[in-house]
Amino acid sequence: MQKRFIKYINDKKLFTKDDNILIALSGGIDSVVMLDLLVKSGYNCGIAHCNFKLRGEESNADEEFIKTLALRYDISLFITSFDTKEYAMQNSISIQMAARELRYDWFEEIRNNNGFNYIALAHQMDDVIETFFINLTRGTGIKGLTGIKAKNNKLVRPVLFAKRTEIEKYSDEHNLIYREDSSNAETKYLRNKIRHNVLPVFNEINNHFSLTMLENINRLNEISDVLDSIVENTFESITSFENDSYLIDIKNLKQINHLPLFLYSYLKRFNFSRLETTEIINSLDGISGKQFFSSTHRVIKDREKLIITVINENEQQNVFYINSADREIKNPISLSMKLVDDVSNLEIKSDPAIAYIDYDKLIFPLVLRKWKHGEYFIPFGMDGFKKLSDFFIDIKMSIPEKENIWILALGDDIVW
Predict the structure, then answer these.
(1) Nearest-angstrom CA–CA distance, 367 and 415
(2) Distance between CA 211 and CA 227 in Å, rounded?
(3) 13-48 pLDDT, tens per residue?
């Protein structure tokens, strides 16, 4: 099994002998076997263990067991404990989700601060199949049926090639000692219910069910990769990037067959759900200005474009001051200023990037800020006042463009 283990690491390009590997060690059979294989294969390792305080003395005994393993293998050890139930309650999430968030955040902190290149997780082949059925029962797209990845950024899974029975055999042959988590036998958890009640039935029907499922998952991975490529090419042809915004041409978008599938496959990178994608599609023939929000981005339905921008709520509150001695500023926009004493021969150029301002009417500091609703100004060449919002409508300015406008002001008066 050790030869297969090393071959799998090399074939999948998980890491090299020069890398430092942080082992996420629960004390269960999977992680103990992974630890033994990594150390005996000559990799540089450290151990990280989380005590979630969920099983009383059993959790504390797991922690003590991990300490003995670190001494036995003579490798560095990092241990922490969490009040998992309190974290779950404060964040209105399940205990399992709380434990997941806590451990992955802590693993990354330890990795980043202690010179580790990767975090090794002890998922194995049966976990891949169980995850497939978990996602299937909850409802998912094709991505949810493609299993657990062998490598995902800094997370690696070097025993993903092995079945649970193979791991048990290796443990017996090498007289490894591990901890049994009593909760693994409880079928109140979905994963355990699938493991103990569902998969045995499939194994009775097909003796090679695990291998068959892996072949199915590999095919789904191939289909998913093809779909991703088609989606990317399709949207490259109808999307542009301007002023930190993605602009999707609505006319061309509406020509796409299977639009809900394609648009969701594109928008999910911006954290939009299927429901939000459906609402966006329903707005395509509606009025301009409607907005849709994910946790990180916003989609604005403009006249001819869908505009995707990053949410930045604090930007509108920024105020910058310009003193009389300032001749150039770079932030938040680039402005250069020149004082002209003799204007008798000054030629006023018709250039919207240049403003000619009577210095004697200015009181410093001037303020550079975002515009406000209800503000007005006198456009060049006009005698009367015009609201900024009306002016923006006249020149067909989109919502992101309006929000990106900076005002050079003197008190409440707009200078430029």
Answers:
(1) 10
(2) 24
(3) 999 999 999 999 999 999 999 999 999 999 999 999
| Among 237, 240, 279, CA closest to 260 | 279
Closest CA to 181 of 49, 54, 81, 68: 54
* DSSP structural state of residue 123: -
Tell me how far the alpha carbon of residue 171 is from its chain's centroid. Answer: 37
Secondary structure (DSSP) of 20-48: EEEEE--SSHHHHHHHHHHHHTT-EEEEE
CA 291 to chain centroid? 21
Rg over CA atoms, the chain = 30
Return the DSSP state at 269: G
For residues 359 and 261, the model is more confident at: 261
Tell me the three state secondary structure of residue 199: helix
Please give the average per-residue pLDDT across 205-233, as a whole number: 92
Task: Spell out a b/e string for 167-176, using b for 16 or more CB atoms within 10 Å of the CB, else e.
Answer: beebbeeeee
How far apart CA 403 and CA 371 sit, in angstroms, is 8
How far apart (Å, rounded) are the C-alpha atoms in residues 148 and 19?
22
| CA nearest to 26, candidates 58, 51, 53 | 51
Element spanning 49, H or E: strand 44-51
H-run or E-run covering 395: none
Residue 79 CA from chain centroid, whole number: 27
Residue 301: strand pairing partners: 290, 306
For helices 84-91 and 95-113, give the axis angle rounded to 10 degrees: 110
